[in-house]
Amino acid sequence: MGAYILRRLLLVIPTLLGIMIINFALVQFVPGGPIEQILANLEGRGDVFESFSGGGGDADFGNDSGSDYVGARGLPPEFIAQLEREFGFDKPPLERFLNMMWNYMRFDFGDSYFRSISVFDLVLEKMPVSITLGLWSTLIAYLISIPLGIKKAVRDGTPFDTWTSGAIIIGYAIPGFLFAILLIVLFAGGSYFRIFPLRGLTSANFADLSLIGKILDYLWHITLPVLASTISAFATLTLLTKNSFLDEIKKQYVITAKAKGLSESRVLYGHVFRNAMLIVISGFPALFIGVFFGGSLIIETLFSLDGLGRLGFEAAVARDYPVVFGTLFAFSLIGLVVGILTDITYVFIDPRIDFEARNT
Length: 360
Description:
CATH superfamily of the largest domain: MetI-like
Subcellular location: Cell inner membrane; Cell membrane
Organism: Yoonia vestfoldensis
Strand content: under 5%
Radius of gyration: 26 Å
Helix content: 55-70%
Protein name: Inner membrane ABC transporter permease protein YejB
Largest sheet: none
GO biological process, one term: microcin transport
Order of helices and strands: HHHHHHHHHHHHHHH
Number of helices: 15
Structural class: mainly alpha
Transmembrane segments: 9-30, 129-150, 162-188, 218-241, 276-303, 323-349
Mean pLDDT: 78
CATH class of the largest domain: Mainly Alpha
Distance between the termini: 12 Å
């Protein structure tokens, strides 16, 4: 197992490099870079994307000053050149990429172009929201979906299986943001009840509360956003667990175990569970990384949560490249490591799995 983990860790380097190369190359062709954003603000337009509408007198800006930048008309070339030096755009793309990767290998992600804060500190500032949504949503999805999926598999074809499947399909069909709006309308003072708060992770007087009070206040605030972000993962994981257990229950070793007089619980959790759970665990990295790092921009906006989802969107719109590439590098690295941890979990659940023998 040690040799396999070492090989997987070594593969992280070319995988990360490939991800960064592709995204860095794509960015070179995207209009409206950070300098154009600054120039748009200086000219009072506020948004560089207004310049790409095709209308108005700004369609050929930059011609008077000889600059290729959108919105550079009337600004001295020296000012544009100074901006290029400050942002590092006076260097060739290859040199910029190599410098960026050298810094990233030392976990130096630089500073945000527009926030006057390091990317690392900025991510730490937004991390509590992502930890809340990612950790609790994943935990609740697994704690509910696995027992429910097992029970549906055991009672396949019964009324219980039928009505729970209908509820699950309805839950899966409802978009997370629409479910969030429904929760707000019903329970956050929208039109009916005002049971839960509408914004933030904590109350204004959080620092003055006791330890128990802080825990209860935190749970009070996260209930609705966590429910909204869990619903789709809950439906998918439940059906995946059911189908996986159904496949295993029909196999010969289960029939043999029952013929020997073993109880149903002993057969399910002593024999079937290990084999059936492998496919469920295989989806853990995608679920965890998707919720933890991607988050939901709309859900964060609806509940006024300033997390990594909004950070990534705002950085992409503002062309804040240090934030975009720094978070991309860090999250890709963590995602690859979580994939390795998933393989280790495979071995923990089923010791018969031998990755080293498979790769020899």
